[in-house]
């Protein structure tokens, strides 16, 4: 199930990834904690740990902080890449979260052509 998708901003690739507040209940926060460490699998099967933190109060503004920038640098992510974050429906899954990142290559006949960043090297792009 897709939890959210968004086009990356400069803040997302330089500091932290902002996450929609309405999905916080789907993350494994312990009582009293305002952070949760999420095990996430990328499209090539790589395993990442992202820390989701949120502020106290009405405007929680959750973000992925720790681990996120390492992912950004490893995948050479850019502004306007599209990130999609998923949760496995199988509650027993060893790694319940999955992330995909796509980059728009071109517009052809009125349609945007996207490719997963994991596949860019196959086309001599990176």
TrEMBL record:
Keywords: DNA-binding, Nucleus, Transcription, Transcription regulation. The keyword rRNA-binding does not apply. The lineage of its organism: Eukaryota, Viridiplantae, Streptophyta, Embryophyta, Tracheophyta. One of its GO terms (cellular component) is nucleus. It is found in: Nucleus. It holds the Pfam family B3. Residues 4-90 form the TF-B3 domain. The keyword Amino-acid biosynthesis does not apply. One of its GO terms (molecular function) is DNA binding. It comes from Theobroma cacao. This is TF-B3 domain-containing protein.
